[in-house]
Amino acid sequence: MSDEMMDEGGVVKKFMYVNRKAPHGTIYALESLEVVLIAAAFDQDVSLVFVDDGVYQLMKEQKTDGIEVKNFSPTYRALEMYDIEKLYVEKESLDARGLTTDDLLVPVEVMSAAEMADLMAQQDVVLSF
Amino acid sequence: MLHTVNKSPFERNALKSCLEHARDGDVVLLIEDGVIGALDNTEFTAMVKAKMGTVKICALAPDLEARGVSSKALAGIELVDFGGFVDLAAENGPVQAWL
Amino acid sequence: MKFAILVNEGPYQHQAADTAYLFTRSALEKGHSIDRIFFYHDGVNNSSSLTEPPQDDRNIVERWTKLADEHGVDLVVCVAAALRRGIKDDNLAKGFRISGLGQLIEAGIQADRLMVFGD
């Protein structure tokens, strides 16, 4: 576990949100995003990672009219306003799916599975949906 | 850290993805349908065996028993009960659930 | 050690609620504390007082209520997820309370370990 720092608001912990599922087929991507937006108010050290089919959550050209569900993908662009700036996408997951960062709707940092594993090990709390 | 996997490797890639992210010294606990990944002579046995030198692989015994596959567990996999699960979680933070 | 638990699946459909319960019971038996169990996604259905399992099956909802009764575990149901799925104070089982997602983050901050049980 990493060191906990104290600031005037209390404890700051490292929270990682692990997204491994494609959007729309299940509600996990949407409800995960809802947690992240609430988490922003707690001034914690937040990282969002997109691994496996989770990378599809960030696809640029999502149009959901035809399946009559909410297109929440623009919300990822708003995360910056909530001071959530650590978005990581795994290289192996992109490669396996023939995707590049050009396919994604927000700027992200691409990291290898090994780097992702190191980052995960440094967390205090890992939330997976 | 502790990783839990609750999916059969025949159904989802959770075990594969977990093993690709487990670092030397990490512990992987197979629970629920994830215990199918703990079995010998399956097409996933080699993948699990390859990690057993550097990562400790455990399986939740009550889940193996419930599925009638206890006798098929791969040698070298440590079997734990729920108390053992709690101990693993207490001793190995953080915990990532590969759902 | 202080544990917090997140349950992301409903009862009966998926084993997650059972595993979470058995983990919680074992942790308490070992002298750990479980400050809060947070129910999210379909996990909110664990709190429905309308649940009526057959006599010979475990009663998952009552089991949670008993945990709250006997060990003072705080059972929190996410309000947004609950309203989506028809869980309200009217049909909320004893021992549960409905609150916001902030309670999950707070549990993560206060606990030594947060355990996730889901699908």
Please name the defining characteristics of this protein.
heterotrimer; A: 129 residues; alpha/beta; Hypothetical Protein Ychn, Chain: A; 4 helices; 23% strand; disordered N terminus; C: 119 residues
List the helices and strands and how they pair.
The complex is a heterotrimer of chains A (129), B (99) and C (119).
Chain A: E1 5-7, E2 10-12, E3 14-19, H1 28-39, E4 45-50, H2 74-78, E5 86-90, H3 91-96, E6 109-111, H4 113-121, E7 125-128
Parallel strand pairs in A: 3-4, 3-7, 4-5, 5-6
Antiparallel strand pairs in A: 1-2
Chain B: E1 2-5, H1 14-21, E2 27-30, H2 45-51, E3 56-60, H3 61-66, E4 78-80, H4 82-91, E5 95-98
Chain C: E1 2-7, H1 16-29, E2 33-39, H2 60-71, E3 74-78, H3 79-84, E4 96-99, H4 102-110, E5 113-117
Parallel strand pairs in C: 1-2, 1-5, 2-3, 3-4
Helix pairs in contact in C: 1-2
What is the succession of H and E elements of chain B?
EHEHEHEHE
> What's the count of strands of chain A?
7
Strand tally of chain B is 5
The CATH C-level name of chain A is Alpha Beta
Report the order of strands and helices of chain A: EEEHEHEHEHE
User: Total domains of chain A, how many?
Assistant: 1
CATH-level-2 architecture of chain B: 3-Layer(aba) Sandwich
Going across the biggest sheet of chain B, name each strand in turn. 4-3-2-1-5
The overall average pLDDT of chain A, rounded, is 93
* Sheet with the most strands, sense and barrel status of chain B: 5 strands, parallel
Shape of chain A: globular
Oligomer: heterotrimer
Count of distinct structural domains of chain B: 1
The CATH class label of chain B is Alpha Beta
The greatest interface here is: B-C, 18 and 22 residues
Number of helices of chain A: 4
Structural class label of chain A? alpha/beta
